[in-house]
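Running low. Any example?
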Amino acid sequence: MLFLALAFPSHAQEAAPPAPAPLTLPATHGETVSSWNGYEQLKFVVDGRACILVVPKSPLPGNPWIWRPEFFGAFPQADIALLGKGVYVAYIDVQNMYGAPVGLDHMDKFYDDVTSTYQLSKKTVLEGFSRGGLFAYNWAARHPDRVSCMYVDAPVCDIKSWPGGKGKGRGSRSDWGRCLKVYGLTEEQALTFTGNPIDNLKPLADAHIDILSVCGGADTTVPLEENTAIVEERYKKLGGTITVIVKPHANHHPHSLTDPTPIVDFALAHCK
């Protein structure tokens, strides 16, 4: 019998260990699970707002995440590359709130939810595309201790510039009306409003939040000189660190960089 056991080992002894199961987070919000660019995508609702969390296959220690409050999936090359490096990608729909306090309140609820339910890092990389820059800068000023760094791309930094169109930019009349309403401002009040990102950079500088900004030098929608150029000058005077990459002949689109390596390296350096 011993001879037979040695000569013919059992199937259990020969079987290879099972492959690890794919990461699937527990459904606590009635999430729907789908795929986004080859990664698991969870869709759920927080505080009445549609939300998305895309899960990396091998999350980095501490579960770092990059957070878009606008335009999920637009020009996503940096997001996809970061997923491949182990960084979660998150989104909440705060459309037509233009960085106003009501939108920031929704963001607060989302932050509380994902950092507890999914154990995401207590510090996020904020990603602000176009009008999403209003959310990124304003939420960072509200919660500088919750931000590891910021990547903003052709960001709106002053509502007078966009959607107001009170300078060089063409603005948007319909968005301007909605913006005034959500902020509770008259047009006259908006012209002297000091709640714009360009006015509230000190909390970010005091918290040593590094900023990477990618902009088009020929942007006619969110003109560089009315937005990021002002932020850059003021932030440096406050002692903050900001790197601006200008695409000389680019308009408002396309966002991001053809090769997103500088964005990915910047985010990863702060995630770690």
